[in-house]
Write a structure and sequence with these properties.
The protein has about 80 residues and is an all-alpha fold. The protein is built from four helices and no strands.
Length: about 80
């Protein structure tokens, strides 16, 4: 059976690439909230004004690994301490 692409219900790639805390699995949610204080602590002397959502997104898109998340934040936000 042939289907017209317009008839199929696909999520757009943009929707798939967005962070939505409500759609995390229980394991992901627990891991996010376990690592978030650690990430904040490691960035405190760099920039303690980074929005919490940016921190959560960095953790999520870096597979809940601290070091890559820190590097991403440092790439996207300037240090508030000179």
């Amino acid at each position: 059976m042939d289907y017209d692409e317009d008839e199929l219900d696909y999520n757009s790639q943009e929707e798939l690439d967005q962070f939505d805390e409500d759609k995390l699995t229980n394991e992901e949610y627990d891991l996010l909230h376990q690592l978030l204080p650690q990430l904040k602590a490691k960035l405190k002397s760099y920039n303690d004004d980074v929005p919490e959502m940016a921190l959560k997104e960095a953790l999520y898109f870096n597979y809940f690994e601290l070091e890559p998340s820190i590097e991403e934040i440092k790439t996207n936000f300037k240090s508030t301490y000179l």
